[in-house]
Design goal:
By secondary structure, this protein is of the alpha+beta class. 46% of the residues lie in helices and 13% in strands.
Length: 181
């Protein structure tokens, strides 16, 4: 059980007030208020680690961490917290475009027909990680990530486009991939 407070004196008082029967599994955390939440990513190592965990990228750049944070903050502000669980807020944040919040569903794979088409494109590689389609062309000459997770309607439309248009070269799929970033 965690209680998060934005005042250090309150933290000290609440730590002393934890009832004995819940003390073995309870903690009070100080989490400072700041008008610039993105600075928390830089200044609070535990917060940085939590945002990294939620991010769809293995080694995310600062802008991707900020996108995750903004999606979470937006969902938090717009959610009626009297009736919402943490997973409700996270699910709402995942609906942002782009959200770059990882999927928590079991690993999924591409449609086999899409996989076959993409595997034929010279110098094009891709992988699915944390529920997102990451791609690279010509050893890193160009790369990116589809901005919606593989469980979204947008990704289903992307796969349908590939099946309908049967791209054979990177040039034929580039605008779809680059335009989505």
């Amino acid at each position: 059980l965690y209680l998060v407070v934005s005042d250090e004196r309150t933290k000290t008082r609440r730590e002393a007030d934890i009832p004995a029967d819940i003390k073995p599994y309870s903690q009070v955390f100080y989490f400072p208020y700041t008008p610039n939440p993105t600075k928390l990513i830089e200044q609070q190592p535990d917060f940085n680690q939590a945002i990294r965990y939620l991010c769809a990228f293995e080694n995310p750049e600062p802008d991707k961490l900020e996108m995750v944070l903004k999606a979470l903050l937006g969902a938090w502000v717009l959610t009626d917290k009297s009736e919402a669980s943490a997973i409700d807020i996270l699910t709402s944040a995942q609906q942002c475009n782009p959200s770059y919040i990882r999927s928590f569903l079991p690993p999924q794979d591409l449609d086999p027909e899409v996989k076959k088409i993409l595997d034929r494109i010279d110098l094009f590689t891709y992988n699915l990680d944390k529920g997102f389609f990451h791609w690279e062309y010509s050893g890193g000459l160009d790369s990116g990530t589809f901005p919606q997770s593989i469980e979204t309607e947008q990704f289903r439309r992307f796969q349908n486009w590939i099946k309908q248009n049967q791209p054979a070269t990177f040039d034929e799929i580039e605008s779809l991939l680059v335009g989505s970033n």
